[in-house]
Every structure is written in C-alpha cells, then in structure tokens.
Specification:
- Residues 1-19 form the signal peptide.
- Keywords: Signal.
- By secondary structure, the protein is mainly β.
- It has 3 domains: 1-29 and 418-499, no CATH class; 31-154, no CATH class; 177-336, no CATH class.
- Helices cover 4% and strands 55% of the residues.
- Strands 2, 3, 4, 5 and 6 form a 5-stranded antiparallel β-sheet that branches.
- A hairpin with a 6-residue loop joins strand 29 and strand 30 (314-318).
Length: 499
C-alpha cells in the first residue's frame, strides 16, 4: 500500500516537474572545431552554491579555454593533460600560454614560469595551494606552497599537504653511489631518515602523520603458520618494517602473515582529517593500529571501518562474531554485516542478516528496528544529518536496485532502477536538497548502457556530463542543475523545486 502511495506521489511529481519551466543559461557557444572535454569538466557545489568548470578543446587550433563560474580563461596551448580542480571552496589549473607555464588559483592568483620550468601536479586544500615546478636545465624539482617556493629537490618522489592547517612534507631520495637513501622532510625543516624503503606516508592535520618504512639493517625473522591453500604448517622468512608517527617510533612489524595471501590488500592506511587506521602484524598476530594505538590481537583482519571527522572517532567490525567496536574498546553490537555512522557520530545504521527470512535487518543504534530488506548493499548518511539513504536488491528483479531513504524516522521507498554498478565509484550518489524534500542522482542503465538522471523519482536523459547538483540559492529557493549542449551552445539547466 505504501509503495502504491509513493508511486502515485512520483507520478504527481512527474507532472509537476514537467510543468515547470527549466531555466536555461548559455555559458558558452562552441565555435567550429571546438568540443567539450567531458572527462575534465565538472559540476560541483562551490562556496555552498552552484559551481561549474568546463574545458573547451579546440581541436583545429590545438588550444584550450576554461569556463569557470562564468569566467573565461584562455586560450592556452596545452602540452600535457592535467585536469583542472574544482572543490567546494577553490579551483585551479595549470596550462601553457605562449612561452610560459601558467598556474591559476581562484581566478586572481596567477603564477607564470618560463618554458623550461614545467608546472604540474596542482593541489589545493582549504588552507593550501601548491604545485610542482621542474627545471629542465638543472633537472631539479621545486614546490610552491601558497606564495613560498620550497626546494630544490633533485630527487623528489612525492609531496603531501596536511588536510587541515598549513603544514606540508616531501619524500625524496639520495644516492651516494653505493645505495639509495629515502627521507621525509617537513615544512618545519625536520628531516627523518635515511630509510632503505618507504612503503607509505600519510599526512593528516597540522601535526599528525604516519610513516611505514624499512630502516637499514632491519633483519627478517623466521615465522611459522598454516598455509591457507595446503592447510599445512609452513615456515617462512618474513621481512619487517617500522612504523613511525608524530607520537614516536612504534617499533617493528611483519610485512606478511605466514600462510595468508590477503594481507597486502588490508595493509594500506585509511584516513580522514584527524584519524588513521591500518591492519598490522606483530609477532604473527593481527592488530588494528588507530592513531598510534594498537587494538587486538584479533583472529582476522579488520575489513569494515568508519573513521570520523573529529579526533578519536572511529568504529570497526572484526572477528567471527562480527563485533562492532567503538574506539576499539567496546563491543557495541555483533553479527554486523554492514554499518555506517553519521557525521555527528550520534547515529549508527547497522545491517544484520536474518537467516530465517533470508533478508537483511536494518536497525539504528542497536535499539530501533527499521525493517527487513533484500540484500542491503550501500548506506550513505546525508551530510550533517541523522538521516540516510540506502540501496538494496529488488525482490522481484535481481538486475534492479531499490532506493530507500530514512528521513525523520520514517522509511521512504524512492523507486527501482536497473543500475550498472561502477567498479571504481560504486553506487550512485544521491544528492538531497537542504530541506531534504527533494533529491536527484545520475546512474548508468544496465540494459541500455546509457546515463539517466533522476529528479524526485522522475527519469530524464542525463546531460553532457553524468552529473547533477542539488543546491539552494541566495533567496532560499532549491534547484537541481545540470549541463547540456544544444545547438552548439553549452547550457546550464536549472530546475526550481516547488515546495
């Protein structure tokens, strides 16, 4: 009955949306030989409002123009592909113009370098803007961070910006003719090293970082274990590495679990602005390292985790009972198949298999039963709220997925769609308006392979970019927006929602 009601609601919304006039704004008229470089263009929330970045490729004259938030930049004569960046606060790109390599941040910070100094790898955070300069004559790298030029670094491997604040670091190597030595240098001039090998380095906020590296003269150990394939005891020589963090040297860890061939995929550091976590092996036992603290030992690797934005906020599932831990200390729930946590950390959506019915049970905070659904596969909280949406397999058509939303304590059925799941990006991201009354997403149809756009349950042909943005303007009106090309005009389409 409820689904019938929502179907009628979608039909009514369809009439309402189709009756509404879509505002069309021409942001650029394509000239002969020009095309939109779709893989480099973007539609995004910018300063909490609608933002866009369109790259116009003139294939006849071999040049590029950038259309960014109503500004036109160019033409440029690009020598190498380096996609521009558009975030919710900043934008930037690097290109070549005449005999200069040019880098532009936010339209008013412009840096020019001669042709022999190539610019690339532009990055931006809320507080930092940076890029690499390669001096072809001297074979040296330098890095500009904000207005300061750092270096040179003859053997630069990579550089890193803190997610929060103005700290940065570089990884480089030196070769004295006998061996390669690897180092990490921080923006405060501190240098750690030399190392025989650097496995991974992660920079979080101003003073928080983690380094996984092999020191010189680190001897391997002989360890025993059960081979997963033969199920027989085996003995192997296991290499070791060091973990060093802002809290100090945490000691030596083994690079593999004897007999287990899956460890490498679980030995990468996961991180947010203030939290990091990684599976580690010490004395052939499995631990979970979070923010410098070891939790465990556990019988298996942590495969599910949720790291919060604020410091010391983390959850994970581990063990035969699939126990959900909060901050590594409390078994909050068991038999957890899947879980997600809200930004505030006040709400936890937990999926548990019901072997009697063959369905998945959805509960909130281990207290509130939401309902049973066929194979819940993806849950996403709406930013800064306690509400979320989730995808599940259709009970009647296994090639289709059903979309549901949990809004203000009620589950809403939002339609069934034949979604082709992207290997890299996963399930479609559903965008909700600030009022949470309206929503939109883009998906690729499993049957036709075409992209389709859904706005409040009504399907439309997708625009030239497989993207849609939902936002609120300065007057409080809510819109869905997308880009399209009509008669050689690049059109910004805006559909105003009726509350």
């Amino acid at each position: 009955m409820k689904r019938l009601w929502f179907s009628c609601l979608f039909l009514f919304l369809g009439w309402a949306l189709q009756a509404q006039e879509i505002e069309k704004e021409t942001i650029y008229t394509l000239k002969e030989g020009e095309v939109l470089a779709t893989s480099e263009s973007n539609l995004h929330l910018y300063l909490s409002r609608l933002g866009y970045l369109a790259v116009i490729d003139n294939q006849r004259e071999k040049n590029r123009r950038y259309i960014i938030n109503r500004g036109i930049y160019g033409p440029f004569e690009r020598r190498s592909i380096a996609p521009p960046i558009l975030t919710d606060r900043h934008w930037c790109f690097t290109d070549t113009q005449k005999d200069s390599n040019v880098v532009i941040f936010d339209g008013y910070k412009i840096y020019k370098h001669p042709a022999g100094q190539r610019t690339f790898d532009v990055r931006v955070t809320d507080y930092l803007e940076s890029y690499i300069i390669y001096n072809e004559r001297l074979s040296e790298y330098s890095i500009r961070v904000n207005t300061q030029l750092q270096g040179p670094f003859p053997n630069l491997i990579d550089y890193y910006l803190s997610n929060y604040g103005d700290s940065w670091a570089v990884v480089f190597f030196e070769n004295d003719g006998n061996r390669y030595e690897y180092y990490v240098q921080f923006s405060n001039s501190n240098v750690i090293g030399p190392f025989e090998e650097i496995l991974q380095f992660v920079f979080l906020d101003i003073n928080q970082w983690i380094l996984m590296a092999k020191k010189f003269n680190t001897e391997p150990i002989v360890a025993t274990g059960i081979d997963k394939l033969s199920m027989e005891e085996t003995e192997e020589l296991v290499e070791r590495y060091s973990i060093i963090t802002d809290k100090g040297d945490l000691g030596l860890f083994e690079r593999r679990l004897v007999g287990d061939y899956d460890y490498e995929q679980y030995n990468r550091v996961a991180y947010t602005t203030h939290n990091y976590a990684v599976n580690v092996i010490k004395n052939q036992k499995i631990y979970y390292l979070v923010n410098g603290q070891l939790f465990g030992p556990y019988e298996d690797f942590v495969r599910q985790y949720d790291l919060g934005i604020k410091p010391d906020r983390f959850n994970y599932v581990v063990g035969a009972q699939q126990t959900l831990y909060f901050r590594g200390r409390k078994g909050f729930s068991s038999n957890v198949q899947y879980f997600k946590v809200s930004d505030s950390r006040n709400s936890v959506a937990i999926v548990k298999p019901n072997h009697d019915t063959g369905k998945d049970s959805l509960v909130i905070n281990e207290k509130y039963y939401v309902g049973e659904f066929s194979s819940i596969l993806n849950i996403q909280f709406i930013p800064d709220t306690e509400d979320f949406y989730f995808w599940s397999i259709s009970e009647t058509n296994f090639d289709s997925h059903q979309l549901h939303a949990y809004i203000n304590g009620e589950v809403e059925y939002m339609g069934e769609y034949p979604i082709l799941i992207d290997v890299f990006s996963g399930y479609p991201k559903v965008h909700f308006s600030p009022s949470k009354k309206h929503w939109a997403f883009v998906y690729r149809d499993l049957n036709t392979q075409e992209y389709k756009m859904v706005i409040d349950g009504i399907e439309y042909p997708a625009g030239i970019l497989p993207q849609v943005v939902v936002y609120k303007d300065n007057n409080g009106a809510e819109y869905a927006a997308w880009l399209n090309i009509e008669n050689n005009k690049l059109i910004l389409n805006k559909l105003k929602f009726q509350n």
